[in-house]
Amino acid sequence: MGFDTSGLLPLSDALQGMLEQLACCCDSEQLPLPDALGRVLASDIASPLAVPPFDNSAMDGYAVRLADLASGTQLIMAGKAFAGQPYQGEWPAGHCVRIMTGAPVPAGTDAVVMQEETQADGDRITFLAQPEPGQNIRRAGSDIGKGACVLPAGTRLTPREMPLLASLGVASVAVRRPLKVAIFSTGDELKPVGTPLAHGDIYDSNRYGVRAMLARMGCDCLDLGIIPDEPAQLRAAFIRADEEADVLITTGGVSVGEADFTKQLLDELGEIGFWKLAIKPGKPFAFGRLPRAWFFGLPGNPVSAMVTFDQLVQPALAKLAGQHFERPLQLQAIAAEPLKKSPGRLDFQRGIMSQGPNGLEVRSTGSQDSAVFSSLSRANCYIVLERERGRVAAGETVTVEPFGGLLL
Ligand code: AMP
Ligand code: MG
């Protein structure tokens, strides 16, 4: 008999419950385009231009009118069109215009014939094939129509969006200020890296994981360090975080042994719920409101802290930051070896997926103890095992979730 898991809160309910309460809390500001990398758009970007702005040639070749080629295969070159230097001259019947890639096609052009399909003898050009109407012409507005929404509010600007916005002549954009997130670790046993350990001490590793994930999300981090399990110091840290940040994220101190202690303090300061989630790793989790800031209390076990941040806190922070959040990709894979699992919780086991002879396959990284960090560092995906599922035999199909932006 396993322990009773019927009262545990499903991940999807926890997520929905949180997201319903949260709204974007970051004002917008106008920034020059190069400074906006990594920021979240505060409003839709409508294209001020058609792209391309004029009909132009996709090839180096000759602009032709089909009527001129109806009765013969030879035309006389009337002149040349270059990118940035349109052809301005006359275009008499029986003539073509030499044209380069990106040059505006002269008015009346039906097609561009690539130069490899022609033979030139001085300015007498022979066409080796009959062109199709519209061939090799990039039409004005064929990429983006004037006024079209090119990027919706909530888009986080990556290197891919920068040239797109520049191509539209957008010099500055309205973006959200970064979300400000205070963090601290709790525990008398924790020491900062760079200091010696006494017997019973361990290094505080969670803060480095949480900081790194916040950096990936573009948040501003206020790192309050390590706070011992001592009410007065914890209280002071909670109050400071609440005054200075939009969000406080702590690790540790929410498990059964310690929750009462933190709970008392948080009941006094705000409205916090302590949840037992039906996920593994990561059962204990706290969420709620301090007078000003939102609070997320992650479990102390390092793997649990990372996984609950990735699965629960990331979508919540995205909403607070005004950022559109895409659900992670999930794929089907074949278990290349048996996987231990007991029914009752949704497992996020750490796996290594690879391309096998029969498609995608996945192996466990070994010990799935939530204190064993190497299980996460060697993994490239979660193996997501349904709540009611038991042991998985080799050859069964399982769901894998490749690590996304936060953990890569
Ligand atoms: P707690 O949730 O505070 O009961 O902690 C659960 C386990 O995680 C204990 O073994 C702690 O020592 C460990 N732990 C808590 N916080 C950290 C941290 N910041 N870095 C590394 N391990 C931690
Ligand atoms: Mg602790």
Automatic annotation (TrEMBL):
SUPFAM superfamilies: MoeA C-terminal domain-like (SSF63867), MoeA N-terminal region -like (SSF63882), Molybdenum cofactor biosynthesis proteins (SSF53218). One of its GO terms (molecular function) is molybdopterin molybdotransferase activity. Residues 182-319 form the MoaB/Mog domain. InterPro entries: MoaB/Mog-like_dom_sf, MoaB/Mog_dom, MoCF_biosynth_CS, MoeA-like, MoeA_C_domain_IV, MoeA_C_domain_IV_sf, MoeA_linker/N, MoeA_linker/N_sf. It is an enzyme of class 2 (transferase). Transmembrane segments: none annotated. Keywords: Magnesium, Metal-binding, Molybdenum, Molybdenum cofactor biosynthesis, Transferase. The keyword Ribonucleoprotein does not apply. Its EC number is 2.10.1.1. Pathway: Cofactor biosynthesis; molybdopterin biosynthesis. It catalyses: adenylyl-molybdopterin + molybdate = Mo-molybdopterin + AMP + H(+). It comes from the Bacteria. Its cofactor is Mg(2+). Belongs to the MoeA family. Catalyzes the insertion of molybdate into adenylated molybdopterin with the concomitant release of AMP. This is Molybdopterin molybdenumtransferase. It comes from Aeromonas allosaccharophila.
